[in-house]
Specification:
About 50% of the residues lie in helices and about 15% in strands. By secondary structure, it is an alpha/beta fold. It has an 8-stranded mixed sheet, sandwiched between helices. Helix 7 crosses helix 12 (about 240-260) and helix 8 (about 170-185) packs across helix 9. The termini are far apart. The model has no long low-confidence stretch (mean pLDDT about 95). It binds NADP nicotinamide-adenine-dinucleotide phosphate (NAP). The site of NADP nicotinamide-adenine-dinucleotide phosphate has 24 residues, from helix 1 and helix 4.
Length: about 260
């Protein structure tokens, strides 16, 4: 097994667990995973659940056993987790820490020569969702492209933009809940209403993903009849400013993201 397929994780929380499950499902015995001992419960659970996974005794032990090191602690925990660790020049360092630039990770992980940021979503556990990589490191791209839709960002500003777009995830579920709630008020059993809306939106999302270069407006047109019900609903929402509000929410999020952190 090549060194980069010995994959270590410093920090075993929500995101690390999703990646570990996704990696194990996609690469099976083609990789080995070494987990830091924190968090204790989750690292023990994953080691018990997956044959590819071993729980190391310490963060230093993870580095000693791994060619690729995934840093999966929260940004405010970086210094405490990594200070005093001995990175090697050949370590390939993959940071999940949102908002922390590559240059800062490279400084902390010196003398490691190959450093990148990776921004997945928890659905990587099921091999789904976007995974943003910057910069492109071929070994990292090769391993993680199996876990979802890999997007190589052009620069770090783009990563910020992707992060802002991900702030509409809870709005997605709120919208599903509103549609299902309306259906239930028409007398449909709540479980059926929920299944109908979730299944419909899953199918539509799959259509969008499979549509490649076709634009969103082409897909909208393909899903409505002139003067039909879909067109009527879309135009009503448009006239009420619904879609402009999405732009406003994203502008607001971007403004927040660019604000210096509170002292
Ligand atoms: N969650 C997401 O959807 C998501 C998406 C994209 C990127 N990210 C990024 O992924 C990173 C992890 O996020 P998360 O949601 O997985 O956070 P999390 O669930 O809070 O996990 C952080 C983990 O780090 C461990 N940890 C803290 N200090 C440590 C140390 N000194 N040594 C070893 N491990 C230590 C914690 O263990 P204890 O429990 O023992 O403290 C915990 O298991 C963050 O930088 C975040 O920005 C997250």
């Amino acid at each position: 097994m090549t060194a980069v397929r010995q994959i270590g994780f410093i920090g075993v929380g929500t995101m690390a667990a999703a990646l570990v499950r996704g990696l194990a499902a996609r690469h099976g015995g083609g990789i080995a995973i070494h987990l830091s001992p924190r968090s204790e419960a989750l690292s023990r659970t994953l080691a018990a659940e997956l044959p590819e996974v071993v729980r190391a005794d310490s963060n230093a032990d993870v580095l000693a056993r791994s060619g690729m090191v995934v840093i999966a602690v929260r940004p405010q925990e970086l210094d405490a987790a990594l200070s005093g660790l001995s990175f090697r020049p050949d370590h390939l360092v993959v940071s999940l820490a949102a908002t922390v630039p590559v240059a800062e990770i490279a400084r902390i992980a010196a003398p490691a020569e190959r450093v990148c940021r990776l921004t997945p979503l928890p659905a990587v556990a099921r091999g789904r969702g976007p995974i943003v990589l910057y910069p492109r490191l071929p070994d990292v791209a090769e391993i993680f492209q199996e876990l979802g839709d890999l997007i190589v960002a052009e620069d770090e500003a783009a990563i910020m933009g992707f992060g802002c777009a991900s702030a509409l995830m809870s709005t997605f579920f709120e919208t599903q809940g509103r549609i299902a709630g309306w259906l239930a008020r028409q007398g449909v059993p709540a479980a059926q209403a929920s299944l109908y809306v979730r299944s419909m939106q899953d199918a539509l999302a799959g259509t969008g993903l499979a549509a490649g270069e076709r634009s969103a407006s082409e897909l909208a047109t393909a899903h409505e009849t002139p003067r039909g019900l879909n067109e009527r609903a879309r135009l009503l929402l448009q006239a009420a400013g619904h879609f402009d509000l999405l732009d406003r929410a994203l502008d607001d999020i971007a403004g927040q993201a660019l604000r210096p952190p509170a002292k």
